[in-house]
Amino acid sequence: MRNAYRVEVVRHAERELMARLPEGALMRRAAAGLAAAAADLLGRVYGTRVALLVGSGDNGGDALYAGARLARRGAGVTAVLLSPDRVHPGGLAALRRAGGRAVGAEEAASGRAVLGGADLVLDGITGIGGRGGLRENAARLLRGVTAPVLAVDLPSGVNADTGEVDGEAVRAAATVTFGAWKPGLLVEPARSHAGAVRLVDIGLAPYLPATPDVVALQHADVAALLPRPGTDTDKYRRGVVGVAAGSARYPGAAVLAVSGALRGGAGAVRYAGTAAAEVLARHPEALVTDGSPEHTGRVQAWAVGSGLGDGAGAERAVREVLDADVPVLIDADGLRLADVDAVRARRAPTVLTPHAGEAAALLDTSRAAVEAGMLDAVRRLADRYRATVLLKGSATLVAGPDGGPVRANPTGTGWLATAGSGDVLSGLIGALLAAGLDARDAAAAGAHLHGVAGRTAPAPPAASDVAAALPAAWREVCAARPRRA
Ligand SMILES: NC(=O)C1=CN([C@@H]2O[C@H](COP(=O)(O)OP(=O)(O)OC[C@H]3O[C@@H](n4cnc5c(N)ncnc54)[C@H](OP(=O)(O)O)[C@@H]3O)[C@@H](O)[C@H]2O)[C@@H](O)CC1
Ligand SMILES: Nc1ncnc2c1ncn2[C@@H]1O[C@H](COP(=O)(O)OP(=O)(O)O)[C@@H](O)[C@H]1O
Ligand SMILES: [K+]
């Protein structure tokens, strides 16, 4: 599990820890980890050229101390001071003692020697003290950078708490973050600015609260959630999932949702809708009816909405499913048709799975606004519908109805952005609900497996290939289960 904490919480933990340590100890730990990561990126340190972009706070201090370490190992290190009159004095002195030099931003911008000639650039402009996008003097300097950038704590210019990027921000090849993950390292669009992230332990863990703000499940966490049929099970005990999807216009959505459901670990899949013949032709194991959900037989969960269209049958299907006292997943057309009050009134869990466009329609805002503020959007929707909401994106987010940590999926891949892959996801999560996972777990585990399947399916995958790759994804994830002693 990767636990991310907002700035206020990190600062509080840092103060507690700092009170027990000698002056400067934390920054030394941070700088040692940072210098080690820089050395790894450089391959060898001696004879390389390293530029430091140094802002006015402690983030710049980290960069300066790390630069001093690299200079002692034979790198030519130049610090570019964005605010020469407000620079970490100890860091600057350490760099100079180690043989490094410092120049002002004007000097660095006037020739290509400093930034253009560097093998690696350390971004120490702002860390958790940054506000808004980069200021113009920093943004201008960055345009002269051609070397890979290693971000210190966070890529400067991104919002650590929300993952929002308001203006220009550093695009790093890698980020070294100190003490704890920050939400912006897990949530888009900031996540894409961070590159590969390495967490440096500075001893903060005992001072962090038990409940983080954002978490990213890892394979072992998901493996622990996935159902494992015992010897005494049968198909009904494993759970039966109902799928109400597809329409005369979009029969393929029904086929894809059922294919996801069949590989989601439930004991059986019942399909209700107009695409019964198409579903049966592709999936002889599905139990189909062309009636409405009410006449489908017992299920332990429903997945409704993919490709359902907006005819009278669609509206009825959504209504009937919402009336059932079992967990329900609502996707695509179902989202438009589901009444907010009906969802809020449900006693069994509900999972909504909008993409950014659908979320925008539900929130009466623009798609761009949702994409810019994913964390806020998913929390608002969960609150409005009193439901679990999975907001699709390159780092899909899952929020529960009663607050608590938001889950950010780390396994996504752009290959999943293919028509019908969301239908596969809806069936998959429906099956996990039927198998008895709690709503947040089913949604997060489903997104995790779906992402792994998107990566392992032969590229470029179609949505059917993503479904076909789910068993391999399931095996890969479960291989991370800790072995029993
Ligand atoms: N605390 C600890 O124990 C440890 C902390 N550590 C390190 O300290 C970092 C936090 O340091 P911090 O608090 O000094 O803030 P920091 O991120 O350097 O930025 C503040 C400065 O940036 C400026 N600025 C703001 N926005 C800006 C913008 N958009 N564009 C440009 N400039 C902008 C702002 O200037 P002003 O607004 O005053 O002009 C202000 O002076 C943390 O991320 C980690 O790296 C580690 O050493 C481990 C131990
Ligand atoms: N850039 C991206 N990177 C990773 N995953 C993505 C990206 N874009 C979309 N996805 C994923 O692809 C799936 C698309 O679902 P959706 O938009 O509902 O498509 P459809 O309705 O065609 O099935 C979602 O799981 C989403 O998270
Ligand atoms: K930074």
TrEMBL record:
Amino-acid positions noted as binding (6S)-NADPHX in the UniProt annotation, renumbered to this chain: 58-62, 127-133, 153, 253, 307, 355, 423
Record bears the keyword Iron: no
Binding site for AMP: 392-396, 422
Domain called YjeF N-terminal: residue spans: 10-210
Cofactor binding note of this UniProt entry: Binds 1 potassium ion per subunit.
EC number(s) reported in the record: 4.2.1.136, 5.1.99.6
Alphabetized SUPFAM superfamilies for the sequence: Ribokinase-like (SSF53613), YjeF N-terminal domain-like (SSF64153)
Superkingdom of origin organism: Bacteria
Cofactor(s) recorded in Swiss-Prot or TrEMBL: Mg(2+); K(+)
Enzymatic reactions: (6R)-NADPHX = (6S)-NADPHX; (6S)-NADHX + ADP = AMP + phosphate + NADH + H(+); (6R)-NADHX = (6S)-NADHX; (6S)-NADPHX + ADP = AMP + phosphate + NADPH + H(+)
MF terms (GO), sorted A to Z: ADP-dependent NAD(P)H-hydrate dehydratase activity; ATP binding; metal ion binding; NAD(P)HX epimerase activity
The entry's keywords: ATP-binding, Isomerase, Lyase, Metal-binding, Multifunctional enzyme, NAD, NADP, Nucleotide-binding, Potassium
Binding site for K(+): 59, 123, 156
Span of domain YjeF C-terminal: 218-477
GO biological process, one term: metabolite repair
Family: Belongs to the NnrD/CARKD family. In the N-terminal section; belongs to the NnrE/AIBP family.
Function description: Catalyzes the dehydration of the S-form of NAD(P)HX at the expense of ADP, which is converted to AMP. Together with NAD(P)HX epimerase, which catalyzes the epimerization of the S- and R-forms, the enzyme allows the repair of both epimers of NAD(P)HX, a damaged form of NAD(P)H that is a result of enzymatic or heat-dependent hydration. Bifunctional enzyme that catalyzes the epimerization of the S- and R-forms of NAD(P)HX and the dehydration of the S-form of NAD(P)HX at the expense of ADP, which is converted to AMP. This allows the repair of both epimers of NAD(P)HX, a damaged form of NAD(P)H that is a result of enzymatic or heat-dependent hydration.
HAMAP family assigned: NADHX_dehydratase, NADHX_epimerase
Protein name, as recorded: Bifunctional NAD(P)H-hydrate repair enzyme
Organism whose genome encodes this protein: Streptomyces chumphonensis
High-level lineage: Bacteria, Bacillati, Actinomycetota, Actinomycetes, Kitasatosporales
The gene coding this protein: nnrD
